[in-house]
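User: I'll paste a sequence; please echo it back and then give the predicted structure.

Assistant: Echoing your sequence first, then the prediction.
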Amino acid sequence: MSSSPVRTDVVVVGAGMSGLCQAVELRRAGLDFVVLEKADDLGGTWRDNTYPGASCDVESHLYAYSFARNPGWSSTFARQPEILAYLHRVAARRGVLPHFRFGTDVRGARWDEAAGTWTVTTAQGATYVSRFLVLGVGGLHTPRTPTPPGSETFRGPVWHSSRWNHDADLAGKHVAVVGVGASGVQIIPELARRAAGVTVFQRTPAWVLPKPDVSHPAWRKRLFRLLPWAQDLYRLRIHVRREMRGIGFHHRPDALRVAEDLIRGLIDRHIDDPGLRETLTPHYRLGCKRVLLSDDYYPALNSPHVRVVSGGPAALRPGGVVDEAGTEHRADALVYATGFDLAGSFDRIRVEGAGGRLLHDTWSTGMYAYNGVAVSGFPNMFLLLGPNGFVPYTGVVTSIEAQARYVVRAVRALRSSRARALVVRPEAERRFLEGVRRQYGRTVWAVGGCRSWYQSESAAGTVLWPDSTTRYRRQLRTVRRKDFAFLGTR
């Protein structure tokens, strides 16, 4: 027999950077809440991605909460262990750990219209009842792993970059890597240092800029400890610089051509083979896909034991990978750096809103959300880092903080209204999505001549926020009551 439901004000699903930030804001607001996490630890992306070379491509001081300074970042771009340790410190110092329920796999969430509550069910049999539901499950969580013909015959180990096999000894082995995205450009140089041979399967070349990563000197760390405002100014400088670059992405794509010339020069300098240079040179606009940072990616590809193959694997054989031209390449191990299913984290949870409406069906033609945080037909439910709530040219933390605070403001707005629930009006949602589509049409993500996961078949046409994070935060500073319907009375 199952135990009685746990009742609380807010259920937060997911204990990554978003869920942790939401927990801090809820505790600050004096609300009762629980954070449900299916893994045995917090950290999300930075818990799961332990592959060699895993690091952030946003400066450490910007990729941190504004309310939790870390004067001791070791370098410009922190690596995975340091970021995960930071998140642990934040959770401990902010006193939110008692609210976390690890090893709790949420399988369903159903809106009870009569009671004005969400009933959240888990694989472990526990049930939670809350007035508000916050989904902080993240889009970079469910691996996208291909299964080419013959996958079952491959003799070597196979894994996705986010589920790294640390037991596999790759020294002296031949390794195939599929994918040259954000993870791939970090993994490939590391594998080139230890493996006897590396075959890289590249569907589309990436624009890879230099990564100006240097150690932070001791004097700077001491300064930031003694004068916190100096660290705030340092962080602000990074933020403003990235926002200025962002103008090229969302308003003036032609301004990015200077960086294209820089990267072509890097390819010419580091790659000896003219044919490989052509293979590595993108034929779409910089910014259309995610711009990557690395100092050792191109030099690694120039190594004699590293081979780049255009296209993906057509088939697997016991001892190798067959390319699209029919050539077999020896492989003792296979690594898929093929990214994530953006909707996968949401699809694994059956979210049932008003009138039995399923979130999966609502998003059948593409994910979208009003202000990146709410969906019509799902009362008292909010998303963190969901569709239309982030940009790819700077750190996501500023957006996460704006969303977490917006959720608290929405909770307070509902309480002050004496209503039972609030839900975004369909017409407000429609206006928002139409505005996103108009702005998106002018961005490099739309006109850059490529296909990417940024694009969507939804009414917005994209999963991105197509403007600056400054404007996004300003938009989330207040809850526009006229955009919401307030339902029932308590």
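The first strand starts at residue 6 and ends at 13. The mean pLDDT is 95.
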